[in-house]
Amino acid sequence: MPLRATGEIVAAAAREGRGVAAFNVIQLEHAEALVTGAERAGAPVVLQISQNCVKYHGALAPIGLATLAVARAAAVPVAVHLDHAEDPELVREAVALGFTSVMFDASTMDYEDNVKATKEIAEHCHAHGVFVEAELGEVGGKDGVHAPGVRTDPDEAAAFVAATTVDALAVAVGSSHAMLTRDAALDFDLIARLHAKVPVPLVLHGSSGVPDEDLTTAVESGMTKINIATHLNKTFTAAVREFLTANPSTVDTRKYFAAGREAVAVEAERLLGVLRAAP
Question: What is the pLDDT, as a whole number, of residue 195?
């Protein structure tokens, strides 16, 4: 099945009240696992590569091109997304490589500068048919910041979308990045008010810290794209640790990476059900 446009996947889910899972890729095994899980669930999926992942690999092209190849070979619709990019040049590179969407993160800037920078990125991406996500109202947890009290104002969010022409908006509604426990308390009333006010699909970042039942309720309340990274990293690491504990003499990385890959595939399939992602 050909690589799918993120906008196509997200728009269809928004119309039908389904969630779209956006899972982060760190190594090739993650991309393979996430697509396997999506194929088992019969659901579309978005594979995300963050700016931090690019720093880990030292360049975007190797992991980006590998992920695009996995997406193009999938039996379900798969999109490839650049996540939390703060560098405009990295955005341009992702567009040139064939990514179907980008998340440009200028949330640390003041409102006026965020609007200006994001609008410029949106103009470039839209000229190449690429879907653009932005962020308003800082989500906690980035760079060690924990700000559970931050919330996005619906009127400001609507004005931001109009000013920047972005296609989706990440909002702060109670979740926090890099949580290791699943006890974040989402503001479902705020999600519903944002959904009613903002004319583009809403994105929930920091979803690893949200319990299953609240992820389902978030989708029912108006969230569409649900970003999950840390939870799947925990799943991968636990499986590798269990394998090595049981097989302490193993030195072939394929053996324990295979265990991690299968564990992530199983959990991705399960989460796609939680998010009601299948058409």
Answer: 96
Query: Could you tell me the two tokens for 166?
Result: 């972005």
HSE at residue 2, side-chain half, CA atoms within 13 A, is: 6
Quick: pLDDT tens for 9-48. Answer: 999 999 999 999 999 999 999 999 999 999 999 999 999 9
Measured torsion, CA atoms of residues 89, 30, 34, 174, in degrees rounded to the nearest 10: -70
The residue type at 247: N
Report strand pairing: 78-85 vs 101-104. Answer: parallel
**Number of other residues whose CB lies within 10 A of the CB of residue 90:** 17
The gap between the terminal CA atoms of the chain, to the nearest Å, is 16
Q: Which of the residues 83, 105, 167, 187 is marked catalytic? A: 83
What pLDDT score was predicted for residue 145?
Answer: 30
Element (H, E) at 135: strand 131-136
Answer yes or no: 83 catalytic: yes
